[in-house]
Structures
1.
Amino acid sequence: MAPVRCPGPVNRREFLRIGSLALGGATLSDIAAGRAAAGTLNSDTSVILCYLHGGPSQLETYDLKPHAPVETRSVFSPISTSVPGMDICEHFPLQAKIADKFSIVRSLNHDVGIHSDGGIIVCTGKRPAVLDPTSQSKSEHPDIGSIVSRVRGGHRSGMPQYVATPSSFYFTRPTYLGVAQQPFVVGNPAAKSYAPPELKIAPQLQERGLDDRKALLKQFDRFRSDLDLNEALVGTDDFRHRAFNMLTTPQVAEAFDINQEPDKLRDQYGRNMWGQSFLLARRLAEAGTGVVSLMMNSPKSGEEFTNWDDHPGNAGRPGHFATFMRTRLPYLDQALTTMIEDIWDRGLNRRIMVVVVGEFGRTPRIRKGAPNDSVGRDHWPNAYSALISGGDLQMGRVIGATDSKAAYPVESPHSPQDLLATVYRHLGVDYTQQFVDYGGRPISILPFGEPIAGLL
């Protein structure tokens, strides 16, 4: 029986630029109103969630099986790291040098091999009631960023609690938490047109004058005047005043301004979408943003670049998946290693937790398929890996293990909910807390799950 054709991860619309004043579709006054309604809880801890869009192969990244049969074993060779017994992919030489600063969980698993629905499980902790094999589904529950935004409320410095770069997750939405809890989408910080929020709106302020705040705030609200807020938010002059101040507070604009970083450091991260997104994420987390999500599709545009959906004919491009991964992996190695070292060098490793994960892993069998007998691995949620750094957790560890083909966990199996519980613990969020959905039913942040003991 021929395998079902994968429609591929859904690409978002053109990235929203920082200066559009759009926060995932919500007006700035909506954001301020929602934050005020949620309270003023603040915390110094942050998480940078690096989402490898498409589902990275565990066999070609962090769980190589060099002694498996040829149809299973990794197409790459393992290399030793600074931690004895922790071997990783040969295309991660920079990470290998700093393995004492991260841990790997090799035993994550769930049961949904669909891009959007798998992503919903990984980012919300809840399995969709109805699966959508076309990967067009939207979550019925808020993701971790929206949860943290709601629970923490406004940051004392004016920083948004949830920021997405270069785009937001296409499969999640804040649902019953209200549109105010959507992420502040910043676009591609490597683009020549990128500018921090204050610099982007400066011409408008100069034209209208700082005294004309009322007119400017009305202009903000017209961006989505047709949006149905389901009476979840209440706009007042005070909320609008706070929203305006968020974009005119020097500290906020400064945090978004990666041009303040030395050229040498920017070069170390990589002058590409991933590298500059990682650098911006570090700046935002350092400044107080609770959750920074990185939608890691591909680092650059071009025929040689694809996302992590490495089945035969990924993105309609013929060839061997190893060719595309060989191009892609060094970009991750450079950006991730530089960010981890940067966080540790700044003494932020207790405050900031880095999580690198996708929606699922890849099949333990390599397959040929269309077009032109292309070679790749298909979707496989039964076993996949994640990398965790910082967060005042135990580093230099390998948590869990899979069988000889990296097909199923055989030691310390963990669910996406366990990973989320670990992150919520770091962020100081009670994941047993409940919210009321549109039907008036109490819904727990996580239906089940416990922090991963091997990391504590």
2.
Amino acid sequence: MADDKLDIASKDLGTSPSRIGDPLMRMEIMRAAIWAGVIGLCVLAVYIARPLLVIFGALVFASMIEGGTRLLGRVLPIGRTWRVSIVLIGVVLFFGWLVYFAGSTISQEAAEFPAIIERQIGELLSYARSQGFAISQDHLENYAGSIGSGISTVTRALSGIVGGLTTIVLIAIIGVYVAIDPTLYERGVAWMLPRHRRDEFYITAARMGETLRRLMAGRLVGMLFEGIFTYVLLAFGGQLFGIDPVPMAALLAILTGLLAFVPNLGAIISGALMVLVGFSGGTDMGLYTIGVYFLVQNFDGYVIIPMIAKKTVDLAPALVLAAQLIMGILFGIIGLFLADPLLAMIKVALERRAEQNDAEAKKQEAAENGA
């Protein structure tokens, strides 16, 4: 009787060499297929990592537009498309003014800037050699050239054949499309997920969007503060101590503000440039620029950043620096700029996953207690 039932079941299921009747064997094959799929996804991620990074950069840009759009919505009761247009026009006007200002006011300073930096580095090396340090400027130039060549190679690979401008244009275009109607793309991603996972996805996406908007808003506030404060102190603050205005104050202020977008590394680079230019005007001016650097960075680090971090993701500085180094090596300049937002998104995703695990554990515990 049992054999007859087995024969009937076999006829219903059909016979095939690919059909595995042993449950243990099916489980092992399923595990092997999962591992093969994970490896395949990792390999695919390596090949499409650069396009994915461009898409993430577009999402960061879209979050900045979204932040400005929501801010305008508090004072202007107009449609979303109009508010997005106003924000984009404001961005275009700002960069147009910046280019005009740089071209008409600090173009000559920008041309002299590399020569001043090179001369100050030469004097610094001469002082180091006079103190017994065997340092060769040619070796440093070779090291700098090798590093620059490596970074430029990765950047060219990311940017494509046309150049870095193509990447910037792609980020801007995709970011504008996402900012115009973000719910359209959010629904598209949710549609690909199982039904029971969509509510969790919407919650996670909303929290990621809010965190990214606040993070970028805080970054812009910090950039604006550092740029203006640096310019005021370099151009006018030294007169209180009988020190002439620091040369290229406007250029240094713009570089300090732009580099403030990259935490940790940006401050180090802008501070080094500021001090090198300061010492070109004498020891007193050099010491004054050191004081300006520490004053700006300490006020930004102990006042501005803590105020921003309370409403955004508080990331450990060492973790941010490590992420910047890894992303900079892998993807060049664009990876360096996007390391901090990417790390913030990963942290939000992990926090949401931990919350879901806690909720599931509480439900299971309640079910066991009820039983």
